[in-house]
Amino acid sequence: MFKENDYVMHDTRGVCKVEGVAALDFSEKDKLYYKLSPVFDRETTLYVPVSGGPTGKMSLRPVITRDEALELIRMMPEIEAKAYSNYKEQAQFCREVLYSGDQKERIALMKGIFQNGIKRKQSGKTLSANERESQKVAEAFLYGELAVALDIPVNQVEDYIANELEKAGSIDQN
């Protein structure tokens, strides 16, 4: 069970802070709910059943640790780009990956979209609206979790990743 002031990763809302646990009557019977505040959307409050959703699946997990964040960054060059078969499958594929809760899958999706963007640009085209939105959401989830785990502002995460990969010799220093 999560405690007050814990940081958790919500499958669809990103990093949240646990504000408390309360018994609320949203249904026919009283249940315990986590009261969550999304870290990067202070205007919203979420209530998530402590016991999970209707299927018992919990949409929360602990935010990764600093060591796990650093390991994830070190692994980025080896993560294979994820692609979808065709345009019709694109929206469903992106949705499944984005809301899987798996940061490695999100990185793979981001790489796939980036590679698609390069190919499209070479042929005078741009990314679809869905691809642009998927890239934005994947970055928000990834950068948000890394910011909390590394205790840095979210707007510094991209540079932090680049510096770590450069130090490791994983990217060209020019």
Would you write up a description of this structure?
The mean pLDDT is 87. α1 packs across α4 and α2 runs parallel beside α4. β3 and β4 form a beta hairpin. The chain folds into 2 domains: 56 residues, Thrombin, subunit H (Beta Barrel); 102 residues, Methane Monooxygenase Hydroxylase, Chain G, domain 1 (Up-down Bundle). Strands 4-3-2-1-5 form a 5-stranded antiparallel sheet. The protein is α+β, with helices and mostly antiparallel strands and 174 residues long. The chain contains 5 helices and 5 strands. The chain is 43% helix and 17% strand.
Q: What can be said about this structure in brief?
A:
This protein is of the alpha+beta class and 174 residues long.
Outline the secondary-structure elements.
Layout: E1 7-10, E2 14-24, E3 31-38, E4 46-49, E5 60-62, H1 66-75, H2 87-98, H3 103-122, H4 129-150, H5 157-167
Antiparallel strand pairs: 1-2, 1-5, 2-3, 3-4
Helix pairs in contact: 1-4, 2-4, 3-4
Rg measurement, Å: 18 Å
Q: Any idea what the shape is?
A: globular
Question: How helical, in percent, are the residues?
Answer: 40-55%
Query: Could you name the CATH class of the largest domain?
Result: Mainly Alpha
Integer average pLDDT: 87
Fill in the keyword field for this structure.
174 residues; alpha+beta; Thrombin, subunit H; Methane Monooxygenase Hydroxylase, Chain G, domain 1; five-stranded antiparallel sheet; globular
